[in-house]
Design goal:
By secondary structure, the chain is mainly α. It has one domain. It is built from five helices and no strands. Helix 3 packs across helix 5. The longest helix is centred in the middle third of the chain and has 23 residues.
């Protein structure tokens, strides 16, 4: 496709989520992925899984995010049921 080796290696590194927390671009990409999941997919996903599993997933998602990602996530207008799950996950 004409991409140079350096660009290919960089994209591969980003997709592999290498050096999260140390690579600003990788962290930003991870934050965006987590925010899209929370805002667009979590409510439907939550209907298919039990509360313990959902809390575990939310806690793991939170750990992968940056402080900026946390702030953005806390500002999302989530449906009431999913918002309560998020509060339980953060409290635990």
């Amino acid at each position: 496709m004409g991409y140079d080796d350096e660009t290919i290696r960089r994209v591969q590194s980003l997709i592999r989520k290498e050096q999260l927390k140390r690579d600003a671009e990788a962290q930003c990409l991870e934050d965006v992925a987590c925010l899209v999941f929370l805002e667009s997919y979590f409510a439907d996903f939550a209907q298919k899984h039990d509360e313990a599993k959902l809390i575990d997933i939310l806690q793991k998602t939170w750990k992968k995010m940056s402080a900026e990602g946390h702030a953005a996530a806390l500002g999302l207008a989530l449906p009431e049921g999913t918002k309560e799950l998020g509060e339980k996950a953060l409290a635990g």
